[in-house]
């Protein structure tokens, strides 16, 4: 019998226990992969190369505060500004609150797609968006979620703002790198409904090149320093992270869950290996008696532990990757997760965790086998 065959037969000696151990590790690695992906989406939201040219101007206090609309005329004249669009979160209710977890923005229709150049829109739809005051453009995933067709009417009931917005779907946008679950409607229509209050949520700017952005951000904030509405200008990535931080310390919550999952996996595999070695103390004593040294015994125990842990890791990580690619996560999460990409580096972390788990769970059994005297081992199970 080969060494590999010996390890394999020992691992499957109690088939029910081995299967339950592998499944326990698989389920834990599945959950860990999902949690790590969610954590990565919060810490490193998806972005594109074009994002390096975009900056956002918001109120210095918080996103809940608005800026005067007249600021845009001064910002537009600054060198380095290629195009600027107003961008105000509406937050209306569509049908009911459970169905309203998608972003709705008032913007300038002739400028927004020059800023977010990754969005692909049919020219006729964009022309209708510019021409018709109550037109809107929606993302592909959002349109598919609600089954909207071109020409359908949408009513968004005011929640944050004291007005209702009646819109007509005139087109959809597609994008490989950006969120496809947004809805855009015209800011001048929004202003008209509110009675032209002269306020804006944020200004989004596309710079002429990345080199001018640091200086441009300083000039914008310096221009409105000590005013009634001071500004805070951020890169797109910093703005996204600031928006996510409004959800609370989700990072700590997900990190705590990952720790619990890891601890549970360690307990399961360690107890399994401890029981397996305790049942085979006599065999280990026999192996020592016929010439197997301590290093060889430890290697056999480690190989058995690693085989169970890695089998569970492959099964759990593979299942997470398969489900993320085959299931419509956006539809299943009811719009909460627009994308859920499980990347190769996340899978690599999962497999490293299973590898470390196999090593850690074999430490105590290996130490027990090293300390075990041949005579004591034979006596214990006689």
Work out the helix count. Answer: 16
What is the CA-based Rg, rounded?
29 Å
The largest sheet is: 10 strands, mixed
Shape: elongated
Structural class: alpha+beta
Regions with pLDDT < 50 over 5+ consecutive residues? Answer: none
Query: What number of structural domains do the residues give?
Result: 2
Which range does the strand content fall in? 15-25%
The ordered string of helix (H) and strand (E) elements is HHEEHEEHEHEHEEEHEEHEHHHHHHHH
Indicate the mean pLDDT.
80
Separation, N- and C-terminal Cα atoms: 26 Å
Q: How many strands?
A: 12
Portion of residues within helices: 40-55%
What this model shows, in words?
53% of the residues lie in helices and 15% in strands. The model has no long low-confidence stretch (mean pLDDT 80). A hairpin with an 8-residue loop joins β7 and β8. The two termini are 26 Å apart. The chain folds into 2 domains: 3-45 and 249-380, no CATH class; 66-228, no CATH class. Strands 1, 3, 4, 5, 6, 7, 8, 9, 11 and 12 form a 10-stranded mixed sheet that branches. The chain has a two-stranded antiparallel ribbon with strand order 2-10. The chain is an alpha+beta fold and 382 residues long. The longest helix is centred in the C-terminal third of the chain and has 33 residues, at 294-326.
List keywords for this structure.
alpha+beta; 2 domains
């Amino acid at each position: 019998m080969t060494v590999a065959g010996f390890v394999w037969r020992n691992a499957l000696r109690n088939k029910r226990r081995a299967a339950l151990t592998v499944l326990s590790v698989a389920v834990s690695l599945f959950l860990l992969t999902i949690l790590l992906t969610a954590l990565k989406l919060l810490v490193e939201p998806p972005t594109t190369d074009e994002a390096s040219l975009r900056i956002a101007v918001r109120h210095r206090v918080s996103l809940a505060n608005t800026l005067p609309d007249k600021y845009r005329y001064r910002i537009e004249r600054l060198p380095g500004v290629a195009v600027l669009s107003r961008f105000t979160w509406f937050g209306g209710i569509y049908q009911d609150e459970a169905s309203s977890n998608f972003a709705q923005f008032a913007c300038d229709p002739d400028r927004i797609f020059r800023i977010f150049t990754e969005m692909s829109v049919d020219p006729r739809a964009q022309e209708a968006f510019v021409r018709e005051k109550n037109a809107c453009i929606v993302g592909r995933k959002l349109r598919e979620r609600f089954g909207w067709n071109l020409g359908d009417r949408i009513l968004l009931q005011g929640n944050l703002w004291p007005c209702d917005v009646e819109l007509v779907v005139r087109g959809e946008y597609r994008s490989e790198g950006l969120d496809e679950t947004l809805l855009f409607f015209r800011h001048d229509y929004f202003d008209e409904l509110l009675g032209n209050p002269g306020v804006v949520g944020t200004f989004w700017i596309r710079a002429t090149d990345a080199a001018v952005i640091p200086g441009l951000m300083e000039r914008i904030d310096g221009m409105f320093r000590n005013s009634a509405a001071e500004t805070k200008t951020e890169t797109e990535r910093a703005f996204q992270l600031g928006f996510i931080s409004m959800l609370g310390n989700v990072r700590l919550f997900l990190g705590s869950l990952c720790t619990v999952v890891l601890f549970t996996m360690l307990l399961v595999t360690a107890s399994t290996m401890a029981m397996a070695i305790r049942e085979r103390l006599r065999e280990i004593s026999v192996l020592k008696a016929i010439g197997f040294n301590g290093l060889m015994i430890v290697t056999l125990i480690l190989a058995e532990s690693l085989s169970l842990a890695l089998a569970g890791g492959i099964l759990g990580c593979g299942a997470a990757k398969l489900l993320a690619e085959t299931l419509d996560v956006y539809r299943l999460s009811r719009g909460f997760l627009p994308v859920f990409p499980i990347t190769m580096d996340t899978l690599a972390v999962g497999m490293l965790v299973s590898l470390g788990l196999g090593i850690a769970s074999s430490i105590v059994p290996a130490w027990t086998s090293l300390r075990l005297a041949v005579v004591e081992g034979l006596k214990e199970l006689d």
